Amino acid sequence: MPASNTNKRRPATPVTLGKSEMGKLPPQALDMEESVLGALMIAKESFATVADLLRPESFYKVQNRLIYEAIAALAAKEQPIDMLSVAEKMRSLGSLEEAGGVIYLSELTRKVASTAHLRYHAQIVSQKAIARELIQMASELEELGYDETQDVEDLMQKAESDIFEISQRNQKRDVTQIDPVISEAFARMRKASQNEGNISGIPSGFTDLDKITSGWQKSDLIIIAARPAMGKTAFVLSMAKNIAVNYHRAVAMFSLEMSNVQLVNRLIMNVCEIEGEKIKNGKLTQGEWNQLEHKVNDLLGAPIYVDDTPALSIFELRSKARKLVREKKVELIIIDYLQLMNANGVNFGSREQEVSIISRNLKALAKELDIPIIALSQLNRQVEQRGGQGIEGKKPQLSDLRESGAIEQDADMVCFIHRPEYYKLYSDEKTGSDLRGLGQIIVAKHRNGATDDVWLRFRGKYAKFQNKDEETDDMPEIDEPNSGASIQIRSSMGSPTMSPAGATQGIDAPPF
Q1: What mean pLDDT do residues 452-476 have?
Q2: Distance between CA atoms of 352 and 359, rounded to whole angstroms?
Q3: DSSP 377-395
Q4: Where are the domains of the chain?
């Protein structure tokens, strides 16, 4: 079997089978199936009681599955459900005789003495169906495991994605009475009241932005989007440094585009304020060596965890994120960037559908872990092609989000990064203010708050964003691109190590 087939699942719906090859019958509860169907046909409006638990595939017996399909079709159109209406519906679908005819339907209704335990019986039917799915999944994996042409990593990813798919499809959450939710809301409000500056979430370190967001909030999916060269990575690295170094809160960053070393190189540029080209060629002045040695200590031991797995799947991310939150107490996750992720193990008709699944699962993961997740995203080329004069002409819009409208739908917040000077716009035509060295953060969607724009200072040669009013020693820069520093510093999930000067594995201040 070729490796590409590992992503193709056979239908999970089991048909009526005899004993398996191991001499065991698949899990089933035919008496419960019959009880459920009979109750649905005699109890008015009882379908709502089991609709969240059962699907046609939940029924082991083919006849029972066909009957439930007819019942579900009637319920979808809000039509009465009883023995006669079900029989008529099945007749129109051409499945009545295959399911045993009217005689079998009448037998089902006669077997039901009470509908009081309908949901309990439905839960048993559902659990047996899940068990059959797991058995089928395990059988497929066993078969593939014996195939020496299969890649073990692909099989592991398939196993994880299949389990995830089954768990997501069958995940149920009970309705909660409002009192404990109110208590939790009050507890969060009391905790937030103790924070300075009305920050209830994770502070970004950018004062004006935090005033709008009150910090990045738990369970939120935040999309930060921009065209290439706008400084997306510089922005989240600056923010990660603020959160981890200034506020001592753990951050994890999944970089699908850069290696760990490249990422840490940029972080060193950011913190040490040494130009990437100088670090690359080693031509630093005595003062710059001292500056590098002194400021890099801020990063050592910082709770920043980096992962550079290429083509990361949403299922791998889920597993790693759970571990980071559990073991490293990570409070915020950054993904650079969304369009480089994939959803291996699931078949899609288009890339747009796959991106939709990824964004939906990122939101679900943020809710599950109860932490904010920030995902970078690309924008369409239409930003450059758009007409219009002044800084508003090239300003990104929600419709510019690349590959999927689902990104906007799933996100709790969408922010754009816009640097007018990139388009040779050096002043605001309305106010006359100087735009050189500035970046505009546009909060275009905010599900739980206001939308607004803030201006930050962008220092391209250091791959750094900072508050606009912070003092700097350098003059405003005119569209100065980031330089790709190449310090050879080891990165071990947030614990870079220094080495003697001149050694191939690291760089440090020379001996004085």
Answers
A1: 80
A2: 11
A3: EEB-THHHH---SHHHHT-
A4: 3-170, 197-258+308-467
Six token digits for residue 329: 């107490």
Q: H or E segment at 405? A: none
Task: State in Å, rounded, how far the first CA of the chain is from the last one.
Answer: 64
Higher pLDDT, 240 or 270: 240
Nearest by Cα to 138 from 167, 152, 158? 158
Q: Do 346 and 357 meet the contact criterion of CB atoms below 8 Å apart?
A: yes
For residue 414, list its beta bridge partners. 223, 445
Q: Which whole number is the average pLDDT over 307-328?
A: 85
Q: How confident is the model at residue 8, as a pLDDT?
A: 41
For residues 231 and 458, is the Cβ–Cβ distance under 8 A? yes
pTM tops 0.70: no
Collapsing DSSP to helix, strand or coil, 10 comes out as: coil
Query: Is domain 3-170 in CATH 2.60.120.320, yes or no?
Result: no
Q: What is the DSSP string of 125-161?
A: HHHHHHHHHHHHHHHHHHHHHT-TTS-HHHHHHHHHH
Annotated active-site residue 257? The verdict is: yes
Query: pLDDT tens digits, residue range 1-56?
Result: 344 444 444 444 444 444 444 567 889 999 999 999 999 999 877 888 888 888 89
Cβ pair 40, 67 in contact under 8 A: no
How high is the pLDDT of residue 504? 31
Tens of pLDDT along 406-451? 788 888 999 999 888 887 887 777 777 878 888 889 998 998 888 8
Instruction: For residue 46, count CB atoms less than 10 angstroms from its CB and return exposed for 0-12, middle for 13-18, buried for 19 or more.
Output: buried
Closest of 457, 461, 458 to residue 485, by C-alpha: 461
Give the rounded distance of the alpha carbon of 172 from its chain centre: 20
Measured CA to CA, the distance from residue 167 to residue 162 in angstroms comes to 9
pLDDT of 79: 87
- Tokens 């419960």 belong to 32
In this structure, the strands spanning 221-226 and 373-378 are parallel
The single residue listed with the structure tokens 């798919």 is: 165
Token pair for 374: 């920030």
Rg over CA atoms, the chain: 29
Catalytic position from the list 57, 88, 160, 257 = 257
Phi, psi of 273 (to 5 degrees): 55, 50
Predicted local distance difference test score (pLDDT) of residue 150 = 82
The two structure tokens encoding residue 422: 């990139």
Condensed to tens digits (0 to 9), the pLDDT of residues 140-150 reads 888 888 888 88
CATH number of 197-258+308-467: 3.40.50.300
